[in-house]
Amino acid sequence: MTPRERADRSLASSFERYLQDKGKGRGGDGGNYRRNAARELERFAEWAAGDRGDDDWTGIVPDDVDREPTFDDLDERVFREYARHLGGDRGLKQNTVQTYYRYISAWCGWCVNEGYLEAHYAQRASAMAPLPEDDGRKPGDQQAWTSEQRHALTRHADERARDAVEAFTTLPEDTDPLDKQRARYAALKAARDRALVFVLAYTAVRVGELLRDPNDPRRRGVRWEDLSLDDGSMDVYRKKQQWDAASLPDPVISPLRSYRKLMDPPTERWPVFPTFDQRTLAGLVQDELADRGEHTEAIAERRGEYARDLLLALDEDIRPPSITTDGTRSILQRLSEAAEIDIDHPKHDYLAPHGGRRGMGEVLVRAFGYTVAARYLDNSEEMVRERYSHIEAGELGDVATEALEEIDSIP
Q1: What residues does the Core-binding (CB) domain cover (predicted)?
Q2: Given this model, what pLDDT does residue 407 score?
Q3: Higher pLDDT, 338 or 239
Q4: 84, 148, 293, 401: which has the fewest Cβ within 10 Å?
Q5: Residue spans of alpha helices (H) in 56-146
Q6: Which has more confidence, 71 or 400?
Q7: Model pLDDT, residue 23
């Protein structure tokens, strides 16, 4: 089924397949999670059709159209209205509103991966704006990769990349050219994923500073010209709206160096983490070659010489865009599942991009204190103390316990 055919289908047509995929996961997805997700999806479909909500709510389909809502009807405004409905029309507690919206958001993300939707509309800031603050969430409740999770993810990504690179570099000389290209493509993709995982795990750079933001032309994703592997630094456009250097610690250097050698970018202006989306690359290659004066038949013949358009783009210096945060989420979802990482978190059933930064924050605060951590995280010490206050509370609890034991032991 093509993306166009999927877009024309009813929302409910995807539910069973989505729930089957969730049922294959770990951590109880096949039990309570699946039942709760099914319930909320049905409620969302009823609301979209106009069967729930205020008396004057007619649903998301235009009034002059008689059909069930389809994926073509969905955009961020729809999810914004649903967030408003959850928060105001059902009398739910703040935390419950957040939980119910997360079920719909998870389904939306799956729909992007499966080709039903073009973007993760439910995660857009404007869509989530009406949601109430989660009054039960403390700073320490936000996902932070643990040492075990970080090691499991980086180890899996490293092994996967090593296997793919070895498979490519040990091919016999008489290997068919297209088969050799396929092996190189697989190695490039695995090497890119490994480099991305290591950067997220160890640099504590905000994911929005690392990748492309479609709504902000200044955030075009880091390029090779922004990296200095010899100095161990990377220039990023910070949250404070200025360029600044971020550290590249030792664990990150080798994956990046190996990946760069394999990619051999035609210029330093190439993105470090380009998209591998075939539809995007196909359109880019065809448009660029047409702009260079090549005819349609010649372009088709040229593309036929390559197993993937990315490889043609490398040879012709047709620079692709960087991946976005949505693309990174998809990569981490895939790797988290393949690595069989144990994740117990109310919002994410995978290692989310921001969790790498928070995990490093935990490590730095515990090892060096708030001042050093604040410098590495590019935050004020006051903000770091607030976000990682659970660490200080735990340490003070240990001090209190030690004091009680000492005083109470005095006869």
Answers
A1: 6-112
A2: 57
A3: 338
A4: 293
A5: 76-88, 94-114, 125-128
A6: 71
A7: 67
Q: How far is CA 159 from CA 128, 255, 336, 392, in A?
A: 37, 11, 14, 36
Instruction: Tell how strand 233-237 and strand 243-247 pair up.
Output: antiparallel
End-to-end CA distance of the chain: 79
SS3 228: strand
Residues in the chain: 411
pLDDT tens across 126-178, in order?
999 999 875 444 444 578 899 999 999 999 999 999 999 999 999 999 999 99
Distance separating alpha carbons of residues 165 and 183, to the nearest angstrom: 8
Amino acid at 94: Q
Q: Is the pLDDT of residue 117 over 60?
A: yes
Write out the two tokens for 93: 């507690």
Q: Which residue has the tokens 């050093």?
A: 372
Give me 6's structure tokens.
């999927």
Contact 411, 396 (CB under 8 A): no
pLDDT band at 366 (very low <50, low <70, confident <90, very high): confident
Place of tokens 């117990």: 344
Rounded to two decimals, what is the model's pTM? 0.64
Region label for 341, one of left (φ > 0), alpha (ψ between -120 and 50) or beta (otherwise): beta
As a whole number of angstroms, the distance between CA 342 and CA 123 comes to: 24
DSSP per residue, 340-367: T-----SS-SS--HHHHHHHHHHHHHHH
178, 307 Cβ separation under 8 angstroms: yes
